[in-house]
Request: fold
Amino acid sequence: MYKLTDDLAIVQTLDFFTPIVDDPYSFGQVAAANALSDVYAMGGRPLTAMNIVCFPIKTMDISVLQDILRGGMEKVHESGAIVVGGHTVEDAELKYGLSVSGIIHPAEVVLNSGSKVGDKLILTKPVGTGIISTAIKGGLADASAEAKIVRSMTTLNQKAAELMQAVGVHACTDITGFGLLGHASEMIDHSDVGMVIQASAVPFFAEARKFAELGMIPGGLHRNRDFRINMVTIEKAVPAYLADILFDPQTSGGLLIAVSAEKADGLLVRMHQEGIPEAAVIGEVVAEPKGHITVIG
Reply:
């Protein structure tokens, strides 16, 4: 974030990755929604986006790139921002992402730190997209499962960001590659608070359970768990498949918001009314143990 004046700050983000769904147009939409989420998580408003592409022009038809860029541009326009150009590199592997710039009043910036004891934790989208994406690549997930996660991943976090700004919250992060528990850990790392997350309250895609129980999980899930397990205690009552889902790396996931208990119910009601039906309170911020997450059944 760059503060320009007392009433204007610039938020800049960059996300760049390989396809996670087969349809190029949908992939472009997912990539754009994912890149825009970092601005929304800080409470900002996106203004511009720049495409970044690596494309195997000798082995892949140019129409694939056209569809990707069309999907990305349409999602950027949906946010109210514009695409201002981009950079293209010939590469053996297709990659696409966007660098997004947005604005916010410096006094209204929402950081991923700042949670307070007693805050409720609201998650705005279900998790499990990484596991289902892995099953898609393995040919095990059907079209219905793919459609569910594409619908979720292409949904902007714009409305959730607007609603949280309207009521005022203490902290927020978007749930992406580090998974729910990984990003939740960032919110309390080196802080004076901890978290309790109720696993049974976390919204997730039903298909993710089936594939997790079959062992169809991405390598990033193991890395997420290895990196943060020293900060997390998972009670025995939590099923193994659900513990996996909580570490599952997401693409264009929802927002995890820490908001005072007095405002939480009202915010949740507004989200449900404004088309975010799966938003749920999944836990709370606690005083002890500091810098640690306890996952209960």
Observations:
- Residues 24-41 form the longest helix (18 residues).
